Model the fold of this input.
Amino acid sequence: MRKQTVDMKKLYLFLILAVGVLAATAQEVIKVNYKGAKPTINDLAWAYLSSDAGDDGDCIDESLHAAKYAYGQYRKGQPLGDEYRVTVDNKNGYALVEAIDAEEGYTLKVEMCYWNEADGKHKLFACSVAFFKNGVYDPGQFDGLSFMRYNNATRTMSYCDAPGFDARYATDEGHLLSYALPRSGKDIVVTTWHPTGPTMKTLKWDGRRFKY
Done:
């Protein structure tokens, strides 16, 4: 059992790096391959997680392997085991990869979703990485929120700034901030983790940007 715990900690490190490193090292422009008239969140999420893969389909950085592995297993209909959960809601444009160590109380959540922009030509894609211990936000080095803009004409995604707000990771007072992406609705919930307990605010989507 102890060996399993050690392996899970390595797994969490891999998963944290899997998404965080993408923001620094992945391709600036990501091609999205899909069938049909438009991409689903499954297509966008897989393109994002696979963006640092080599020609043979393997990850250049082994730290990307765990996240890509879990999502790849899901896409192939293969079992994930008790350590992983993958949720893909194409209807609502939402996907979630979780790694769980019930014994140690750790949960890593990698959320992805998209919004249709008001111009009808782009989609805004987001990925939020948040690490919790016993339900309390306990971030690693690469926790945070990243955005990409998908171009309908070119079928590509490019990194962009958070539209309408500063995606900060702590308040001026030093309180940690985490971001929950919407599975229902269109708004992002921002949680401030005070010593006395968390408080939440909502970033509302207007078709172009987010506003408090």
Notes: Residues 1-7, 16-26, 53-57, 59-64 have pLDDT under 50 and may be disordered. The CA atoms of residues 182 and 188 lie 6 Å apart.
